[in-house]
Amino acid sequence: RRTDIRSRGTAGQGPYLPGTQMDWAARAGDLWLHETVAIALGWIERNLGQAELQVTKKTAAGKEEPLEGHPLLDLLRDPNPYHDGDDLAAAMALSWFCEGNAYVVKLRNGTGAPVELYWLPHWAVEPVGTATELITHYLYRVDNTDHRIERSEMIHFRNGLNPRDPKRGQAEATACIRSIVGDTEWSNCIASLALNLGLPPVVLTPKSPDVDWDQNQATKIKAQYIKETTGDNRGKPIVVGSAVDLQKPGLSPEELDVTAQRQWPQDSAVGVFGLSTMLLGLTAGANANAYGNMR
Fold first, then answer.
1. pLDDT by 10s per residue, the chain, length 295
2. How far apart are CA 257 and CA 261, in angstroms?
3. Pairing verdict, β 101-108 and 154-158
4. Nearest of 127, 80, 136, 65 to residue 101 by alpha carbon
5. What residues form DSSP beta bridges with 254?
6. Contact at 8 Å (CB) between 268 and 179?
7. Which of 2, 14, 4 is nearest to 126 (CA)?
C-alpha cells in the first residue's frame, strides 16, 4: 500500500507555485500518469537502456581507462531476481525526472559485498539528518511502518539540490506542474467533446411558456437526457415524457480545434525533460515537423 512519507509538497518544495494559491501538486497527483509526461518518460526509458555501461579508472596520465569484467557491470545488468537492468534504469529515471530523487538500496552477502540492488519508491523514502550532519540515515515507510536504512546502504541520486531541503534534489517538472495539468485538462476537454458527439453542454427548457418544472422534474429530465445521449447511447433516438426545448450554441470545426491551446503546455511539459514535442510526435510539434522549421 502506498504511503507518502514526504513532509512538504510533491518534492518537498511546499504546495504553492509563484503567483497562485492553488495546490497544483495535489491537483496533478502522480506526474507520470499524465499522458505527455508518460510519452516523454517512455522515450527516455527506451533510449536509456541502449547506453553501454562502463566502469573506468583514471590512469596516471589522467585518462579514463575501462575495467573489463568488473562485478559492478554484472550487478547493474542483473540487479535482483525480479528486475533486470532496464527495469532499474526506467524506475530511476521516473523518480529522477518526476520528483528529483532516485533511491536504490543495496543488499549484501555474508562477506559484505553488494549482490542485489532494489529501487525504492521516492514517495516512501525520507532522508534524515541533524543540525551537524546533513544526512545520517534514511527512513523507508511500508504500511505506515518506518524502516531505518543506513547511509552506506543507500544510493541516492539527486537532481540538483532542493533549496528548501538540501538533503533532497528537485525535479524541474515540479515547476511546470501547471502546464502539465493544463495539457491534461485540454485532453479531458477533447475526450468530453468526443463522448458527447462533439457538442458542448445544452440548455433544456419546457417547450411551453405555461409549463414550469420543479426541481425534481428538472433533475429527472436532465439525468434522462445525459443517460440517453452520451457514452454507448450517443446517436440513438431519445423519448421524453414532455415537450422540451433544447438550445445549444453552434461551434464550427475551427472552434472545436484545441491544437493551439495544447501547444504551450506541451512545450513546457516536454521541455523539462530536455526533449522537444517534434521528437515525440506531439501536437505542439506539428508546426515544426521539419528541422528547418524549428525556431
1. 444 544 433 444 445 677 777 888 888 889 998 888 898 999 999 998 888 888 999 998 889 999 988 999 999 999 999 999 999 999 999 999 999 999 999 999 999 999 999 999 999 999 999 999 999 999 999 999 999 999 999 999 999 999 889 999 999 888 888 888 888 887 887 777 777 655 556 788 888 888 888 898 888 888 888 888 776 676 678 777 778 887 765 565 566 666 666 677 778 888 878 888 888 877 655 565 555 555 5
2. 9
3. antiparallel
4. 127
5. none
6. yes
7. 4
Q: Which residues pair with 146 in a beta bridge?
A: 141
Strand segments, DSSP code E, in the chain are 56-58, 64-66, 101-108, 114-120, 125-128, 137-142, 145-150, 154-158, 203-206, 244-247
Grid cell in block for residue 269 = 511539459
Tell me the three cell numbers of residue 16.
Answer: 504553492
Nearest alpha carbon to residue 118 among 158, 143, 88, 157? 88
Nine-digit cell string for 250: 453552434
pTM, two decimals, is 0.73
SS3 content of the chain, % helix, strand, coil (to 5): 40, 20, 40
Greatest C-alpha distance within the chain: 98
